[in-house]
Amino acid sequence: MKTFSMIFRKRRWLWWVTLLLFLLLTLLLGTLRRMVYQDKVSTIVHTETEAATQQIDLVKNHLWELAETFHKFKIDIPQITDIMAGALHAKTMQKRQALRKELFKLLDPSYKYMKQFGLRQLHFHLPGPVSFLRFHRPSKYGDSLAGVREDLDWVNRNKKPIAAFAEGRIFNGFRNVYPIFKNGEFLGTVEISYSFAALEEELRKADTDASYTFLVKRDVMNRKVFKDEKHNYEPSNFKGFYFDKSTLRKDMPLSLATIYAINRAISPEAASIMQAGALKSILFHASNIRGNRHILVTFVPVKNIRKETVAYIVKYDFLPIIDEMRSNLKLSYFFVTIIALLLTILIMLGVVKYIMVKESSTHDPLTGLFNRAVVNAFFNKYIQESHRYGVPFSAIFCDIDHFKRINDTYGHDVGDLILQALAKMLQQNLRESDVLARWGGEEFIILLPDTKLDQAVTVAEKLREAIDAASFPEVGKKITCSFGVAQLQEGENAQAFFKRVDDYLYKAKKSGRNRVVSA
Predict the structure, then answer these.
(1) What pLDDT score was predicted for residue 1?
(2) Which residues contact 277 (CB under 8 A, 6 or more apart)?
(3) Cα–Cα distances in Å, from 337 out to 331, 332, 512?
(4) Strand, coil or helix: 59
């Protein structure tokens, strides 16, 4: 575990915060009390912002699981695929219309049942993608969604399921799109999507005092929504964004009039946040709302399939802890000075302990890389995804050659410096999507999702050459590494895959080191 000195050495700002906090609280009393207040507020705002994001992610995952279950048991069955196959090959519009009615009759009871769990749209499409049956609006069909719905375009190209937010012709939604097959033939897609209202329902269960609104970028709405459906949106106080009117509920803890008033007050600051697509909160002090209260307005970006921010979930939540802190500013100077000294010590101990606990549970203390526990979670996740969706997955073991000799000759402190330098070099030569971790000792593991064996070997060779060409002044000579590379095979479990990668590394060591060995 990292020592306190290591934490402070790595984060010099901790020294300055501690010193400044103590001096301000001791010498400037009133001014210092205000700064302590602001510092605590910032911490609370950051924590609440992260908590809001995590809660939204949990609810999204819950709805995704509902969609998965509904798809598995009600849609991915022979009756449905037979209808879609018949629709695809229908010779006449009358035949296709009859199949639409049959599909509607078959699934409408299930659709109505799932609506109580927040389901908004059940939408079948023929290849193209072309709308075949909207359960939420059966009268609208036959329109092409190519270029309108990027998630549908993606599934049509890749024939794989996807979960993403997308604006539609009628409604927006958190969409789960699945390809439909029969005997290997691609028949089209089905969309199971949830509205923001479904998310809000679950979010309100966790925080009954919170209010929510949902905003969509104006240009996205104008470009994609049917002209006669644009009445579902109305302008907001935030430039370039429109309210989804269905989310402007009158039963929220805050009235719509109050929300509009808050939006007008914070719109200049909010504009820069939303134009940048950022996640951020604004603390609003409402002296005329429920008795001089603080309200935290959190802007959580919603991204489309291209990771572009196209919408925002806005949360309005009371922060009674800040209301209480504000009243405590009236404490006497004597007590403030004493409490300030104690709080300075306790806060910094808590911060450092939090950092230590958080990082020790997920990161290697020496190199800052992921540790074995974290990489095991990634390892199993990528294996499951590879087997489920057929995407390639490769892994690399990297081991420093003759590292024991370095430790014995130059000492463990130099060995630690080498490990840190090598970790930094490996990180600089990998993609953001790759997972790099210290496996133990002088050994590193690299997980390469969506990567075939030949690509993984190329990556390993690039790393080997970079290390071989680098200079390490701590030891006054070159350092080399050996690499073992393997791609997950069909039906292979984690233990067998891991052993193959390790065996290739062993062969690289035995065959002369400073080389890459794979299948």
Answers:
(1) 45
(2) 301, 303, 308, 309
(3) 10, 9, 67
(4) helix
pTM above 0.70, yes or no: no
Return the exposure string of 252-277: e unless at least 16 CB atoms fall within 10 Å of the residue's CB, then b: bebeeebbbbbbebbeeebeebbeeb
Question: Which candidate, 174, 177, 171, places its Cα nearest to that of 225?
Answer: 171
Tokens of 503: 């065996």
Of 151, 132, 153, which Cα lies nearest the Cα of 141?
A: 132
The residue assigned the tokens 């375009």 is: 153
Q: How far apart, in whole angstroms, are the C-alpha atoms of residue 41 and residue 456?
A: 47
Q: In the block, which residue shows the tokens 């230590």?
A: 356
- The Cα-based distances of 146 to 131, 280, 413 in angstroms read 10, 34, 60
Helix axes 29-70, 93-115, angle to 10 degrees: 130
Peptide bond into 235 cis (omega under 30): no
DSSP strand E in 183-331: where?
185-194, 211-217, 233-235, 241-244, 280-286, 293-303, 309-318
Quick one: 404 exposed, middle or buried, by C-beta within 10 A (0-12, 13-18, 19+)?
A: exposed
Residues making up the chain, counted from first to last: 519
Lowest mean pLDDT segment, chosen from 276-280, 351-355, 366-370:
351-355
Q: By three-state DSSP, how is residue 131 classified?
A: strand
pLDDT tens, position by position, 25-67: 666 555 666 677 788 888 999 999 999 999 999 999 999 999 9
Tell me the one-letter amino acid at 129. P
Asked if 508 and 516 touch (Cβ cutoff 8 Å), the reply is yes
